[in-house]
Structures are given as structure tokens and as C-alpha cells.
Design a protein that fits this description.
- The chain is 54% helix and 5% strand.
- The chain is mainly α and 160 residues long.
- The protein has a two-stranded parallel sheet.
- The longest helix is centred in the N-terminal third of the chain and has 18 residues.
- The protein is globular and about 60 Å long.
């Protein structure tokens, strides 16, 4: 006998847009958009008999539209798009302080090179400025790539 079940996914994000500059100050809409939101929708497509309600809040949708249609940016994306050899000292510190903002066991340590970079950073033991001396340009370039790559849903790689 089937069990009646209601599945409701509430997809929300605060409004991260700085109204003065127009910049999105945090990357979470963009990053969760290519990972979790996509992954959930993709999972549902594999089970056409499952009925689900997905609540998409206006603040999240508006920011996704900004990225897709208005070429919006955020501090993380700007530093990703800057070649490693053109990063300022402040950019390097930003990357070293913020590009490990992911679930360490599932999103960083699962990948040997990203784990190496996390170990090299010595998070919590030295400042970003101190750690910067240990990072070569290739390490920074790898960190720029790994931070963004790990935010793609795993099924994305199976489909390409």
C-alpha cells in the first residue's frame, strides 16, 4: 500500500546584492545554483512518478537572473577570473581566507590536490598573509579552479 508523502523543498537565499554597487557580496546563490539546486532538479528527473513541490523564493531567483542575464559578479567570481599571476596581495589573502569555504570532508579532502592546498594553507594556525609565502602561482591557480569545481554537482561530470 503506497504511503502518502509530501516532499517540499524550500530553496532560499538571502538577498546578497549591494544596492549601491550592484555587486553580489557573497557567492552562495551562484555556487548552490550549480550544485544543490541543479542536483535536486536532476534527481527528480530520474523519478518521473515522484511529485514534489519546490519553493523558489524571489530573492534567489532575482540573483540567478542577475548572474545569467546581467553579467553579475561577486568578490569570489572576480578573484576566480583574475589570472593567478595578476592577483594582488589582498586578492591572494582573500582567496586563502575564503576559497576553503566548503564542507571539508566531502568537498575538499575527497580530492587529493585540494586536500594538499588545504594542508598548505594551515588554516587556523597561520594568517592568510603568512600562508601566502608558501603558495606558488600554480597553487593559487589550482585553488581558484578547485574552489569552483567542487561546487558543481557530481552528476554534472557524469553528463559531460
Amino acid at each position: 500500500m503506497p504511503i502518502p508523502l509530501a516532499i517540499v523543498w524550500h530553496q532560499h537565499q538571502p538577498y546578497y546584492k549591494d544596492l549601491a554597487s550592484g555587486e553580489l557580496v557573497l557567492p552562495w546563490v551562484r555556487l548552490h545554483g550549480v550544485k544543490d539546486y541543479y542536483g535536486m532538479a536532476r534527481l527528480l528527473s530520474e523519478f518521473p512518478g515522484v511529485k514534489c513541490t519546490i519553493n523558489l523564493v524571489p530573492s534567489m531567483l532575482a540573483q540567478l537572473v542577475d548572474y545569467v542575464e546581467k553579467d553579475a559578479s561577486d568578490p569570489f567570481l572576480r578573484r576566480t577570473q583574475t589570472p593567478a599571476d595578476a592577483l594582488s596581495a589582498d586578492d591572494v589573502c582573500f582567496i586563502l581566507d575564503h576559497f576553503f569555504m566548503a564542507q571539508w570532508d566531502r568537498m575538499i579532502r575527497a580530492y587529493p590536490r585540494y586536500r594538499e592546498l588545504l594542508d598548505l594553507r594551515r588554516m587556523g594556525r597561520v594568517t592568510a598573509a603568512q600562508a601566502a609565502a608558501e603558495f606558488k602561482k600554480q597553487d593559487l591557480r589550482d585553488l581558484q579552479v578547485w574552489f569552483n569545481l567542487t561546487w558543481f554537482h557530481p552528476v554534472s561530470f557524469e553528463e559531460s
